[in-house]
Each structure stands twice: as C-alpha cells, then as structure tokens.
Amino acid sequence: MAHPKRKQSKTRTAKRRTHDKAIEPTLALCPNCGAWHVYHTVCECGYYRGQQAIAKKEAIS
C-alpha cells in the first residue's frame, strides 16, 4: 500500500476539507398553494413561476 512521504499540514488538510460541507438547498414559497419547494423546480401543485407547468389529475376520493 502507498504511504505519504511527508506529513500533511493542518492548513493543507483544512483547505481540502472546505468543500466537504453539506449545502442546504434554497427553498421558495409557492404563490399558488403556499407550499415550500426547491428553487428553480416545479411545485407539487404543478405551477412554476406563477404559470401552470404540469397538468395535475384530481384525486378520486
């Protein structure tokens, strides 16, 4: 197995780990139904930026 030739400094290790954080998705409030959805995506009600993007079928109860 390969082994490191020199000890990696704390600064170099920290610089590498700066990109390991979990990014929280940006949420937006739907003006049609009032639900939260991921930004730049269609809401569950089928609306995107105030316009009907997907025709949703009504549930039979």
Distance from N terminus to C terminus (CA atoms, Å) equals 63 Å
Major β-sheet profile: 2 strands, antiparallel
How many strands in all? 4
- What is the global morphology? rod-shaped
Share of residues in helices: 10-25%
State the low-pLDDT regions, or none.
none
Number of helices: 1
> Spatial order of the strands in the main sheet?
1-2
Give the class from helix and strand content and strand pairing. alpha+beta
Question: How large, in whole angstroms, is the Cα Rg?
Answer: 23 Å
Order of helices and strands: HEEEE
Summed up, what is this model?
The protein is α+β, with helices and mostly antiparallel strands. 13% of the residues lie in helices and 16% in strands. The protein has one helix spanning 10-17, and strands at residues 27-29, 36-38, 47-48, 51-52.
Describe, in plain words, how this protein is organized in 3D.
The radius of gyration is 23 Å and the shape is rod-shaped. It is α+β, with helices and mostly antiparallel strands and 61 residues long. A hairpin with a 6-residue loop joins β1 (27-29) and β2. It has a domain at 24-55. The mean pLDDT is 89. A two-stranded antiparallel sheet has the order 1-2. A two-stranded antiparallel sheet has the order 3-4. It contains 1 helix and 4 strands; from the N terminus they run αββββ.
List the helices and strands and how they pair.
Layout: H1 10-17, E1 27-29, E2 36-38, E3 47-48, E4 51-52
Antiparallel strand pairs: 1-2, 3-4
Task: Note the main attributes of this structure.
two-stranded antiparallel ribbon, single chain, 4 strands, two-stranded antiparallel sheet, 61 residues, 1 helix, alpha+beta
